[in-house]
Design brief:
The complex is a heterodimer.
Chain A: H1 2-12, H2 14-19, E1 35-43, E2 49-58, E3 61-66, E4 78-81, E5 86-89, E6 91-96, H3 134-139, E7 143-148, E8 157-163, H4 169-172, E9 173-183, E10 188-191, E11 196-199, H5 203-222, H6 231-241, E12 245-250, H7 253-265, E13 271-274, H8 282-287, E14 292-294, H9 310-321, E15 325-327, H10 338-347, H11 352-357, H12 361-367, E16 384-387, E17 399-404, E18 407-408, H13 414-431
Parallel strand pairs in A: 1-4, 1-5, 6-7, 9-12, 12-13, 13-14, 14-15
Antiparallel strand pairs in A: 1-2, 2-3, 5-16, 7-8, 8-9, 10-11, 16-17, 17-18
Chain B: H1 2-16, E1 39-49, E2 52-62, E3 65-70, E4 80-83, E5 88-91, E6 93-98, H2 145-148, H3 153-162, E7 164-169, E8 176-184, H4 190-193, E9 194-204, H5 218-237, H6 246-253, E10 259-262, H7 266-279, E11 283-286, H8 295-301, E12 304-308, E13 314-315, H9 320-323, H10 328-336, H11 340-347, E14 351-354, H12 364-373, H13 378-385, H14 387-392, E15 410-413, E16 424-429, E17 432-435, E18 446-452, E19 455-463, E20 468-473, E21 479-487, E22 490-495, E23 505-512, E24 515-521, E25 527-534, H15 547-555, E26 583-591, E27 598-607, E28 610-615, E29 624-627, E30 632-635, E31 637-642, H16 672-678, E32 682-687, E33 695-698, E34 700-703, E35 720-725, H17 747-769, H18 778-787, E36 791-797, H19 800-813, E37 819-822, H20 830-836, E38 839-842, H21 860-866, E39 871-873, H22 884-893, H23 899-904, H24 908-913, E40 931-934, E41 945-950, E42 953-957, H25 958-984, E43 989-990, E44 994-995
Parallel strand pairs in B: 1-4, 1-5, 6-7, 9-10, 10-11, 11-12, 12-14, 13-43, 26-29, 26-30, 31-32, 35-36, 36-37, 37-38, 38-39
Antiparallel strand pairs in B: 1-2, 2-3, 5-15, 7-8, 8-9, 15-16, 16-17, 18-19, 18-25, 19-20, 20-21, 21-22, 22-23, 23-24, 24-25, 26-27, 27-28, 30-40, 32-34, 33-35, 40-41, 41-42
């Protein structure tokens, strides 16, 4: 069945490929008519699942989510029969340079790293390239939203939550400047020559420097009037106000604790990113109500003695401890494997719907966009997709439909186009 | 020849011994002062050799040599007599591993950069040394230590104080370091200190101060050494007629000397041994102190060792989070390192000890005693510092024991050297006396009756001869401290008679035999006579208060609670090697990869490491049954492209071709990633050289036999492969501005590199066949093997143009490219690949990381497969290798391959590409029992490898992993507690240090064998 559909898709698409000889499909127009997906397994993104359910949406918003025992009036709706298929809220990629880089090794295409140590005012969305050939390959696997994030330096800048479809960054943005990112200094130094990790002798100095920056920024925030505007401190204001997240990238247990206490000194509840050691300080994180954007599960244990499957099990460990977390995947083009980062955690003890939640609902809550996206609930954006099978398993992940704010996304991408192109080559050879 | 050298050295020695009324080349200033140097040491306990002890014996020396030693030796008239009652004489120690008196290696700083990263350093293709020297700067074989030796009084003093009388010294710089010279640690002119000019030849795997790019890896250093051995032979036979090469001349000249090879660990010792075996050279290995971790293998080599005593300090593990930085391997080494000498001794391995690696030579005795506490016999300890080092460099005619005619190099100690309290008083070197600590003239200890005027006191002198302590016993519970001073027969005493009385009693007098007597003044200034004579009374209680305590301390046996040696020496190591068993796997879903396809509810019998039977309802006596209901059994995963388990460098990318290097020389069987990947079902992998140059190095195919040694990992009888590479890496596109000069810089040039090398290889083959003498060229040998169909190419490749190019080059030279690896644009030329007969081993979905992969697509594998190319999915990534089954699933997701075919992408197809499909890759009776039992459908992300077998040995079992995990934690905790206890007792500690092993990728270019750490 899956293959038939797929072949159909392939059969239909060459026409479009011929019309637009580039690898980024045309962004979708606004939703034209109400749509209802019926007979689907609905993964709501809040930990719940509805078998055989119905979801309807209109003008970009979800209008109905039903368990299928009711027979709602769907007249006027375009019906998609999704029998045997699964519907998920659009997966949200976090902490990624997707959109900021096109080819890793080609400097001209790299836009995620600005010069300088403290750059809270630098905004990722400005460089978000809606014409990137990479983005369509990512959304083809169900990743429909991305937190596009700068990196490097102590404070690399602000991320924004972007939609994976749009004519330009202005209409692709879902949440501009959702948070400032901060790389916590490491208490260890690494010597490349000896491959030894030793004490970072400058650690205290680096933390003091950071504190100085925050003290000044906080004072600036409290000042009733400022004579000279400081762009850096301006960017920090909403962080102190609590309307902009502070994402602290910290891996080690000691760093996580210090980072949380540091942020709390300024009345900030931070989000810890990477958080490799989060399992070690889970009780602390829980007690402080601090959520975590967890480093990808596709990782080796940090230390040679650690259990071989520790990165796979970390999500389950955090779940058991009641720490709020969401998934992330390294890199930019690698985001198309984000669903499987979650699947891997399921294989090692995380309940399935919790894994879905940590790609959707929990992510939206952590990023502060849960009022609009993340779960399948009436009133929220119709940003969702249909998969032939379990979308967290590469064996069954086949996205057939994707909608962003109700707009039906063209799931074609560069990979599929090149596939068709060279399929055609071999067909020509055969015909000869 | 050797004899001649020795004779010459002996003659030279005679010439230079001081006091021989020798004729010297230097003019004298003033009146000459010849000394006979005749001394007799009487009443001593003398170790004439480590195993020969004489009590109450006499040693006579004259003119720097031992003249006589024995119990019945008469003291010659005119000898200076030293009464050594109660003292012990030992031969002085010898250290074979020093750079005493050597000049520092001069490192030519170019632009102030000495970075390890080649990215930051300008490449240097050839030596910067002018003249007819070796092409490679790391070959400093012409360095002759004796020509550069200058005595260094400060270092000599420190070494003497540690007990050394002579050392072998060489400059620790380079891969071939040149000769070492044997010198004594006396003072005087170098002319007299040098005992033997050329006593040894030195080698290592570190290029030291060489700024030349090559070699940049351990395998490169090994290749350079091997090539140099061949070059030496060629030069002696025929090469000399073709060129003058001073380095090869020197190389050949030093071959007859003892060869000392410095290594960094036990595996490098085995690597050195294999080089030696190839060229008939026997090395003395300067080891790292971890030999105990692989005793059996090292014993089997028959090599002798020089081992350090630099036992690591305990880590400061007070902070539990900080302590996590320290690996179990390092903790275990902390505990077991002091047992190394004892274990070497018990294994019957010949070894010498060195102070090298200690912070100061003065630490030697303390460490030595520790080694004895940890089981080294005293005799063995002495032997390793005296006889063995002399023996190893053929110097027992002069050193190593105290026998007539040998150098008078000996120590005088206060007692048994291995007693903590024992002191070295004097170190005599070539008959010259060096006082380290003045011998006490008298032993004052005892109980005396002290009469001062009319008062009579009991004076107790406790402690020992060097440090007596004096007290007046007032009554059972009260004593008064007495300060004293003794020198040259005179003694003074003083004390405060009571707390109330302000002032002191002061006495002065002489010590004559047992009686002390003289005059003194009381507190009020009154002069009195006084004397002290030994008390007659029996010793009272409280005389020896410390004794019982000390005995108790000694009972604390350091060997009592030692951990075991694990194989490998890391977390998840075994204490006992797992063995082949007979297994009956019942009721599994079996993915055969054969015509039978997927068999449900099927049993598989594994016997003698092979798959013995496949069927339903199988029965077998004495088989261990595994209920595999609901589980899937597949062939072991085969990773066609890995860089794990490789030591010190994956790329010898310093030249356009490095065909001479072999990854098989640098297998690291202790890489934890082997175990991690077993937990992902991987059983076999090809370890590839990196992709920094068009012609890389020779590959190694290993089975994941966790716990085996490096050679035991190798896939026996597998064909030989070599790595080639194309595209951006080899033309250095992303290496930075320093790298714009090496040919090739374009894809055009890459073709010419191949054209040229294969042309030369062909000509080399012709020369070889002609029967004329030729220089064995390891690089061209490897390429010739390709032309002769004995070696097969795995080529890193991305763009279709160059893929096509290499196939055309191969066709012109009459061979086939075996495998294109990465091959991300293989889908564009799959028809050509199929026609040529090349396979493709690719990533499932990698792309966009550089320009040449901008058209990489996840449909690549299925498209190539459809055109008849044998397709594999590989990792090139230590993490992803654990999930290759998931990667295979992507061939179903993208491209719609059948699940059976997809699984073959990571099992049978890589086996085919590696020519090992007759042994592995499918579940078929008679094939190796390399299988994986999965909890779920093997292509599903939810499948966990529950058990992984290699050769019928269960190397991974998820349930056992949980047990090992707990054991790891318990062992860590035990060691942490032990370190805390050691710290409390005052042991030195170091701040926790972590180690981040290098996870290599194709493009890693770090220079791994620089000496400047």
């Amino acid at each position: 069945m899956r293959h038939i559909f797929f072949l159909l898709l392939i059969a239909l698409l060459p026409l479009r490929g011929a019309l637009w000889a580039q690898y980024v499909p045309v962004p979708a127009p606004p939703q034209q008519e109400p749509i209802a997906i019926v007979n689907a397994t609905l993964h709501l993104g809040n930990g719940q699942v509805i078998e055989n359910g119905i979801i309807a949406f209109d003008k970009g918003k979800i209008t109905l989510v039903s368990d299928g025992r009711q027979r709602p009036d769907l007249s006027g709706h375009r019906i998609i029969d999704a029998t045997g298929r699964h519907v998920y809220p659009g997966f949200i990629a976090t902490n990624t340079s997707l959109g900021l880089v096109e080819i890793g090794a080609v400097r001209a295409t790299v836009d995620y790293r600005e010069v300088g140590t403290y750059n809270p005012n630098v905004r990722a969305l400005i460089a978000y390239n809606t014409d990137s050939e990479v983005i369509p390959t990512v959304r083809s696997n169900g990743v429909l939203l991305v937190q596009t994030t700068p990196s490097g330096g102590r404070i690399p800048g602000m991320s924004s939550v972007m939609m994976t479809d749009g004519w330009n960054w202005e209409d692709a943005v879902l949440q501009a400047d959702d948070g400032v990112h901060l790389n916590w200094p490491s208490p260890y130094s690494f010597n490349w020559r000896t491959r030894r990790i030793t004490k970072n002798e400058r650690y205290d100095e680096q933390v003091t420097d950071l504190r100085k920056f925050f003290d000044e920024a906080y004072a600036y925030y409290q000042r009733p009037e400022v004579e000279e505007k400081n762009l850096r401190f301006e960017a920090m204001k909403p962080v102190f106000e609590g309307t902009r997240n502070l994402y602290i990238h910290a891996e080690l247990a000691t760093n996580i604790e210090e980072a949380v206490l540091f942020a709390e000194d300024y009345g900030i509840r931070p989000v810890i990113v990477e958080a490799t050691d989060a399992w070690l300080v889970a009780d602390f994180l829980k007690a402080h109500g601090v959520p975590v954007i967890l480093r990808t599960t596709f990782n080796l244990p940090r230390r040679p003695d650690e259990p071989v499957d520790l990165p796979f099990r970390t999500p389950a460990l955090l779940h058991e401890k009641g720490v709020q977390f969401c998934f992330s995947q390294k890199g930019f083009w690698q985001q198309f494997n984000l669903p499987f980062v979650a699947g891997q955690a399921v294989a090692y003890g995380l309940p399935y719907e919790e894994a879905v939640r940590a790609l959707t609902g929990a992510t939206a809550e952590i990023l502060g966009i849960a009022d609009r996206v993340g779960t399948l609930e009436p009133g929220k954006d119709a940003t969702l997709f249909i998969s032939e099978g379990d979308a967290l398993d590469m064996r069954t992940n086949q996205v057939t439909h994707a909608f962003i704010q109700g707009r039906r996304i063209n799931l074609d991408n560069k990979h599929k186009m090149l596939y068709r192109k060279f399929k055609a080559k071999y067909e020509q050879i055969q015909q000869r | 020849m050797k004899g001649l050298i020795r004779l010459a050295a002996a003659l030279l020695l005679l010439w230079h011994v001081p006091g021989l009324h020798a004729q010297v080349t230097f003019p004298e200033n003033g009146v000459s002062d010849p000394r006979e140097g005749l001394h007799a040491f009487t009443n001593a306990t003398i170790y004439t050799r480590y195993d020969q002890k004489l009590d109450n014996a006499t040693l006579v020396i004259r003119k720097g040599k031992v003249e006589a030693v024995g119990v019945d030796v008469e003291v010659p008239r005119g000898a200076v007599v030293h009464d050594l009652q109660g003292k012990v004489i030992y031969p002085s120690f010898i250290d074979l591993y020093t750079d005493y008196g050597m000049p520092k290696a001069n490192r030519q700083q170019r632009g102030g950069q000495t970075s390890m990263h080649r990215f930051e350093r300008r490449p240097q293709p050839l030596t910067s040394r002018k003249g007819a020297w070796a092409w490679n700067e790391a070959l400093k074989v012409d360095f002759r230590a004796h020509e550069h030796f200058t005595a260094d009084a400060k270092t000599a003093k420190a070494l003497r104080e540690a007990g050394f009388g002579s050392v072998l010294s060489h400059r620790m710089d380079g891969i071939a370091r040149g000769t070492g010279t044997l010198v004594t640690l006396g003072e005087g002119r170098a002319h007299e200190l040098i005992v033997r000019e050329k006593a040894s030849n030195h080698l290592s795997f570190n290029k030291g101060s060489s700024q030349q790019s090559y070699p940049g890896s351990l395998m490169g250093a090994i290749a350079l050494l091997r090539q140099t051995y061949y070059d030496g032979r060629w030069y002696a036979e025929a090469g000399r007629k073709e060129e003058v090469n001073n380095s090869l001349e020197a190389w050949n000249a030093v071959q007859a000397l003892p060869q000392i090879f410095e290594v960094r660990d036990k595996w490098e010792a085995l690597r050195a041994w294999r080089i030696g075996k190839e060229f008939g050279v026997s090395y003395i290995i300067k080891g790292a102190g971890d030999e105990y971790q692989r005793l059996d293998e090292l014993k089997a080599t028959g090599m002798a060792f020089i081992v350090p005593l630099n036992f690591p300090d305990a880590y400061d593990v007070e902070d539990p989070l900080d302590a996590m930085q320290v690996s179990l391997a390092e903790m275990k080494h902390w505990e077991l390192a002091p047992t190394n000498p004892a274990r070497l001794e018990q294994a019957g391995i010949t070894f010498a000890l060195t102070a090298h690696g200690l912070k100061k030579p003065s630490e030697l005795l303390r460490r030595l005693r520790k080694a004895v506490q940890y089981g080294l016999s005293k005799e063995g300890a002495l032997k390793a510092l005296t006889w063995t080092p002399a023996h190893l460099i053929d110097a027992t005619d002069q050193l190593g024991s105290l026998e007539p005619g040998k150098l008078a190099n000996f120590l005088i100690t206060s007692g048994d050297l291995f007693d903590d309290k024992t002191k070295i008083y004097e170190n005599w070197i070539k008959g010259e006396q060096f006082v380290l600590e003045r011998m006490p003239e008298v032993d004052l200890t005892g109980t005396y009756e002290l009469k001062v005027g009319d008062d009579v006191w009991t004076l107790k002198v406790s402690g020992n001869a060097e440090k007596p302590g004096m007290k007046l016993q007032v009554n059972d519970s009260t004593t008064i401290d007495v300060s004293h001073k003794y020198a040259h027969g005179r003694i003074t005493l003083s004390w405060s008679p009571s707390k109330e009385a302000k002032g002191k009693v002061r006495l002065s007098g002489v010590v004559e035999d047992d009686r002390w007597w003289g005059r003194g003044q009381l507190v009020d200034g009154t002069w009195v006579d006084w004397q002290a004579v030994p008390a007659v009374a029996a010793p009272q209680e409280g005389d020896k208060p410390e004794r019982p305590d000390r005995d108790k301390k000694k009972k604390e046996d350091p060997l009592a609670d030692l951990g075991e040696v694990w194989y490998p020496f890391t977390a998840y190591g075994w204490t006992e090697r797992p063995t082949q068993k007979t297994w009956l796997i019942k009721n599994a879903t079996v993915w055969t990869n054969e015509a039978e396809g997927v068999l449900r509810n099927t049993d598989v019998l594994i016997q003698d490491g092979k798959i013995a039977k496949i069927g339903k309802g199988l029965k077998a006596n004495d088989a261990i049954e595994i209920d595999a209901t609901g589980m899937h059994l597949t062939p072991g995963i085969i990773d066609e492209h890995t860089h794990i388990a490789i030591t010190r460098g994956v790329n010898e990318g310093t030249q356009a071709s490095s065909a001479e290097v072999r990854v098989g020389d640098v297998i690291n069987p202790e890489d934890i990633n082997i175990y991690r990947q077993l937990s992902g079902g991987v059983t076999t992998a090809q370890q590839l050289h990196g992709s920094a140059n068009p012609i890389g190095g020779q590959s190694s195919i290993i089975k994941f036999r966790w716990g085996y040694d490096d050679q035991g990992m190798k896939f026996e009888g597998a064909d030989e492969f070599i790595k080639f590479a194309l595209g951006e890496n080899v033309k250095q596109s992303n290496w930075g501005d320093n790298f714009r000069s090496r040919f090739p810089q374009t894809r055009m040039g890459v073709e010419q590199v191949y054209e040229d090398y294969f042309t030369r290889a062909r000509e080399y083959g012709e020369r070889k066949r002609s029967g004329k003498p030729y220089r064995v060229d390891l690089e061209l040998e490897a390429l010739l093997e390709i032309l002769e169909g004995k070696r097969f190419i795995t080529c890193h490749s991305y763009r279709q143009s160059e893929i096509n190019m290499l196939m055309k080059v191969a066709e012109r030279f009459g061979f086939r490219v075996n495998t294109f690896t990465h091959i991300l644009e293989g889908y564009k030329v799959a028809d050509k690949m199929a026609r040529h007969g090349a396979g493709g081993s690719t990533f499932s979905d990698w792309w966009a990381y550089k320009f040449e992969v901008y058209e990489a697509i996840p449909y690549n594998g299925p498209l190539m497969h459809e055109q008849g190319v044998t397709v594999a999915y590989n990792s090139d990534d230590a993490e992803m290798a654990r999930r290759l089954n998931q990667e295979a699933a992507k061939a179903v997701k993208y491209g719609g391959l059948s699940e059976e075919e997809a699984l073959k992408f990571v099992t049978l197809n890589p086996a085919r590409l590696l020519h090992i499909d007759d042994r592995v890759g499918s579940i078929k009776v008679g094939k190796d029992a390399d299988v994986v039992l999965w909890s779920d459908h093997p292509l599903s992300i939810y499948a966990r490898a529950e058990m992984t077998f290699v050769d019928g040995i269960k190397f991974f079992d998820r349930k056992e992993e949980a047990v090992l995990r707990r054991r790891n934690e318990q062992e860590r905790n035990r060691l942490i507690q032990k370190m805390l206890a050691a710290k409390k007792k005052g042991a030195h500690t170091q701040h926790p240090k972590g180690r981040m092993p290098h996870l290599y990728h194709c493009e890693d270019l770090t220079d791994e064998i620089r000496g400047d750490e």
